[in-house]
Amino acid sequence: MTESPLRLADDPAAVPIRDAATVVLLRDGPAGPEAFLLQRVRALAFAAGMSVFPGGVVDERDADADIGWVGPPAADWAAALSAPEPLARALVCAAVRETFEECGVLLAGPSAGSVCTVDGPQWADERAALERGDLSLAAMLAQHGLLLRADLLRPWAHWITPLGERRRYDTRFFVAALPSGQSTQDDAGEADTVVWLPPAEALAQAERSERGLLPPTSVTLSEIVGHRTVADVLAAAERRTITPIMPRLDHDPDGIVVVLPDGRRIVPLVPGARKP
Question: Which of 4, 51, 252, 270 could form a disulfide with 256 if both were Cys (CB 3.0 to 4.6 A apart)?
Fold first, then answer.
């Protein structure tokens, strides 16, 4: 039986679902788009040892209406994300906050059409304060006179953790290009390592059991394969019709299997696990 990163709940009906946002951060590479992946610390309670995109749960302060905003209004995001306007706005803010916390990239600028630089020890301190919960995104942006650049994000997918897992999330996936003048950091507290990889290579590493990918991550990477540039991915996002995907869990001789609505069966593997 293969090792599974999934941890099942004793009482599935008692597990609450938390809203979350994930960002597929992309840059153009020699062979096409590359995605930023963090390999999560093995001691974590959720997705230990797995490679994931930056993201996390929505904080109640992400709904702060005072956050300066550039881009599509909350009503447009609500339609794209299948969420009420306040939640849609909070999801976009959570996506920006988590991207800054986990890889040091801030999708914000002093005006429409501009993006800030986030070099220096002050930004590192504020990033750490955000991660601890000592600072809100709204307060940080206001302090620097910055506007959240919602126009740099595109909605991509909507995944809901299967019934039966100990931790469940209602997660909206976004795509975004690495802003010019910014670079990712490799000091995310919940990650052992970080890497930029072409989606096809990340999937090949998972096939060789060298990298662990949960189904939403592997499916998303497979959807990006074939696009020649980051601009092509962003354009494709504009054309996508997003419907919620909630897989179900099943068991077979290979262990716990995630069954997608289209019938595909995926066995999530941690790095180094024996393949079926």
Answer: 4
